[in-house]
Design brief:
The chain has 171 residues and is mostly beta strands. It contains 2 helices and 10 strands. The protein has a 5-stranded antiparallel β-sheet with strand order 5-7-2-9-10, with no helix packed on it. It has a 3-stranded mixed β-sheet with strand order 1-8-4, with no helix packed on it. A two-stranded antiparallel ribbon has the order 3-6.
Length: 171
C-alpha cells in the first residue's frame, strides 16, 4: 500500500517541540547513532513573561543520586527563533564549583555544565531564567544534558511562567 503522510497542520499553529539531548562524548561522536525525536507535546502556549523556572524533581540515577547536572537550556519562540536569556539563577548563594555555576547552563556551550550538588538534600532543583520584556512567549525549549554522568541527568521537571500579578503558571 502507498505510504501515508502525517496530518497537515495550519501554518499559523506550528507544532510544539521539547527536546532532551545529551552533549556527545568522544566515543559517541565517533560512532554516532541518533535516537528518534521524542513525540511533540500538545501544550497550550504560555503567556509572554520575563521569568521562567524549570523545577527539576528527579534524576535518572533515582533517589540515591545526590547531584543534578545539565549542559545547556535554550528557549524558543513559536516561529523557532531562539529567545535571548539575559540572566539565570538557582537560589544557591555560592556554587561549590565556580566553573560549574548556573551561567554555564545558558552560555551556548554544551561542553560546560551547571551542577547542583544540593539536589539530593533539597529533593529538587530550580533554574530561573530571565528574558527581556517584549519577547514572545516560550513555545518550546531544549535541555542538553552533560556528557559525563547520565545518573545526574534530569528525569522529570516542570516549566513555570511568572506573569506579573499572578501566581506561577505550570506549562
Amino acid at each position: 500500500s502507498p505510504p501515508t503522510s502525517a496530518p497537515s497542520t495550519s501554518p499559523s499553529t506550528p507544532p510544539k517541540r521539547v527536546f532532551l539531548s545529551r552533549a556527545p562524548s568522544a566515543a559517541t561522536r565517533a560512532a554516532s547513532v541518533e535516537p528518534p525525536d521524542p513525540p511533540c507535546p500538545t501544550l497550550p502556549p504560555p503567556p509572554p513573561a520575563t521569568t521562567y523556572r524549570f523545577r527539576f524533581s528527579s534524576v535518572r540515577g533515582g533517589a540515591t543520586e545526590q547531584t543534578l547536572q545539565l549542559a545547556e537550556v535554550s528557549l524558543y519562540a513559536s516561529d523557532g527563533s531562539p529567545l535571548t536569556i539575559t540572566a539565570s539563577s538557582d537560589g544557591v548563594a555560592a556554587p561549590p564549583y565556580p566553573q560549574q555555576s548556573v551561567p554555564s547552563a545558558i552560555d551556548g556551550n554544551p561542553a560546560t555544565k551547571w551542577v547542583d550538588v544540593g539536589f539530593g538534600a533539597a529533593g529538587s532543583s530550580s533554574l530561573l531564567l530571565s528574558v527581556p520584556a517584549g519577547q514572545p512567549a516560550v513555545a518550546s525549549y531544549t535541555i542538553t544534558t552533560a556528557n559525563d554522568n547520565p545518573s545526574r541527568d534530569p528525569a522529570s521537571w516542570t516549566l513555570e511562567v511568572f506573569v506579573p500579578g499572578s501566581a506561577p503558571i505550570v506549562v
